[in-house]
């Protein structure tokens, strides 16, 4: 049997990037031979094994044929006769379809190395269409390697467009899609992920609520970029530049969905878009079964981001309501994530990327003033239940009034 390194490990070594996961392909072996060498099978009828010591994945060279819709609809053919070239041709991108032996000799029948040098994400063969998840994968690689100048090849974008129109994307499970989306959002240029999905028509299928923002104008005084979709991309870009976590990036992507619902005659104003957007945010959250912390932050940022921008003008009672809505006493981190999402929203505007955002520290100060109210003295007075809650609220309001005064003097 011959063993080769394949996929991301070869690609990333040639790019001079750190290699974390190594995938191997085994040519000329049977499952029985692998078991005899101590490899552990990954699944009952899937020709992938784990190395007894390293735990790395070793897959028998295989061909795949699509036999139905969605990811389940595959039949595999793994046998010692399947060649390395046959295994490589069923893979997604040329840059992912190279193999390397233990002497670092490259097998590159589909010119992945040339495409790496030319900075092109190109599909290997029509077999690309067999797994619709690859539409998201290509967009994710585009987001990851945008900083190196990679672009999607026109013919690959065309194939992605056909796949998006074919209805195949609807067959993807929430789990597989979310895995790609969440990884893509954590790349260095997540806005490129959304842009590529839009360019091939996949955004309209996966997140029509985000797609609908493009072409919707906003008032130029606050938004020199005008277009709501462009603004959303810029907010996401800022979130990545500021190394924000997934929760914040997800909230940034969804914060303005309500603007897509504004009747044209009201443009460029978007009255109550925060509230109108909530049902759309909920729908997107649920479609991809986003983790609870992502769901919650997206809804809260959607509802309250304009409060964040107007923080300095808010009455003490409104500030208190805001802090209560976030349950800032038990969940201080979530409020901090809200603050930075608002800041990204303020900076994700053309020419305003470097603006200062005094609202952030002001809100932090308000949170600590309210959190500074001690419960113990109220308990000592014998208060409990709803009475205790009311008394706490009164004390916090007092603290916020004092905070507002001290901040304005
Ligand atoms: N692959 C594919 N189609 C998929 C998933 C994977 O063709 N839908 C192939 C590609 O050749 C890929 C390899 O399997 O390089 C390994 O896949 P995976 O580990 O998911 O990705 P990597 O390319 O290693 O990329 P990453 O750095 O994102 O893990």
TrEMBL record:
GO biological process: RNA repair; tRNA 3'-terminal CCA addition
SUPFAM superfamilies: Nucleotidyltransferase, Poly A polymerase C-terminal region-like
Domain HD residues, every copy: 228-329
Binding site for ATP: 8, 11, 91, 137, 140
Positions bound to CTP: 8, 11, 91, 137, 140
Cofactor note: Magnesium is required for nucleotidyltransferase activity.
Keyword annotations from UniProtKB, A to Z: ATP-binding, Hydrolase, Magnesium, Metal-binding, Multifunctional enzyme, Nickel, Nucleotide-binding, Nucleotidyltransferase, RNA repair, RNA-binding, Transferase, tRNA processing
Catalysis: reaction(s): a tRNA with a 3' CCA end + 2 CTP + ATP = a tRNA with a 3' CCACCA end + 3 diphosphate; a tRNA precursor + 2 CTP + ATP = a tRNA with a 3' CCA end + 3 diphosphate
CDD domains documented for this protein: HDc (cd00077), NT_ClassII-CCAase (cd05398)
Record keyword Iron present: no
GO terms for MF: ATP binding; CCA tRNA nucleotidyltransferase activity; CCACCA tRNA nucleotidyltransferase activity; cyclic-nucleotide phosphodiesterase activity; magnesium ion binding; phosphatase activity; tRNA binding
Domain of life, source organism: Bacteria
Function description: Catalyzes the addition and repair of the essential 3'-terminal CCA sequence in tRNAs without using a nucleic acid template. Adds these three nucleotides in the order of C, C, and A to the tRNA nucleotide-73, using CTP and ATP as substrates and producing inorganic pyrophosphate. tRNA 3'-terminal CCA addition is required both for tRNA processing and repair. Also involved in tRNA surveillance by mediating tandem CCA addition to generate a CCACCA at the 3' terminus of unstable tRNAs. While stable tRNAs receive only 3'-terminal CCA, unstable tRNAs are marked with CCACCA and rapidly degraded.
Comment field (misc): A single active site specifically recognizes both ATP and CTP and is responsible for their addition.
Similarity-based family: Belongs to the tRNA nucleotidyltransferase/poly(A) polymerase family. Bacterial CCA-adding enzyme type 1 subfamily.
Oligomer and partners: Monomer. Can also form homodimers and oligomers.
Protein name (Swiss-Prot/TrEMBL): Multifunctional CCA protein
């Amino acid at each position: 049997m011959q063993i080769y390194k394949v996929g991301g490990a070869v690609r990333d070594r040639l790019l001079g990037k750190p290699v974390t996961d190594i995938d191997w392909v085994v040519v000329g072996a049977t499952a029985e031979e692998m078991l005899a060498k101590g490899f552990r099978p990954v699944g009952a009828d899937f020709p992938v094994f784990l190395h007894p010591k390293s735990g790395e994945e070793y897959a028998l060279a295989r061909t795949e044929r699509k036999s139905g819709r969605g990811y389940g609809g595959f039949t595999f053919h793994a046998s010692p006769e399947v060649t390395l070239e046959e295994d490589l041709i069923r893979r997604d991108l040329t840059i992912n379809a190279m193999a390397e032996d233990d002497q670092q000799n490259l097998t590159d029948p589909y010119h992945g190395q040339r495409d790496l040098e030319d900075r092109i994400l190109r599909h290997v063969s029509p077999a690309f269409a067999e797994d619709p998840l690859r539409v998201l994968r290509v967009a994710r690689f585009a987001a990851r390697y945008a900083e190196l100048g990679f672009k999607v090849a026109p013919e690959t974008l065309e194939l992605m467009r056909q796949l998006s129109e074919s209805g195949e994307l609807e067959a993807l499970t929430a789990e597989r899609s979310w895995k790609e989306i969440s990884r893509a959002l954590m790349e260095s240029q997540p806005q490129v992920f959304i842009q590529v999905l839009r360019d091939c028509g996949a955004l309209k299928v996966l997140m029509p609520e985000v797609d609908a923002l493009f072409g919707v104008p906003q008032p130029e005084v606050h938004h020199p970029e005008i277009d709501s979709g462009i603004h959303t991309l810029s907010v996401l870009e800022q979130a990545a530049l500021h190394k924000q976590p997934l929760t914040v990036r997800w909230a940034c992507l969804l914060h303005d969905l309500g603007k897509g619902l504004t009747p044209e005659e009201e443009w460029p104003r978007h009255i109550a878009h925060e509230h109108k957007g909530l049902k759309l945010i909920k729908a997107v959250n649920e479609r991809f079964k986003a983790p609870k912390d992502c769901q919650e932050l997206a809804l809260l940022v959607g509802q309250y981001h304009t409060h964040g921008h107007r923080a300095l003008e808010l009455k003490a009672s409104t500030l208190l309501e805001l802090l209560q809505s976030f349950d800032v006493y038990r969940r201080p981190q979530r409020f901090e994530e809200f603050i930075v999402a608002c800041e990204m929203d303020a900076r994700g505007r053309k020419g305003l990327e470097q603006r200062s955002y005094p609202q952030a520290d002001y809100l932090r100060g308000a949170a600590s003033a309210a959190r500074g109210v001690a419960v113990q003295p109220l308990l000592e007075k014998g208060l409990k239940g709803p009475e205790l809650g009311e008394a706490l609220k009164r004390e916090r309001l007092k603290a916020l009034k004092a905070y507002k005064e001290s901040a304005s003097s």
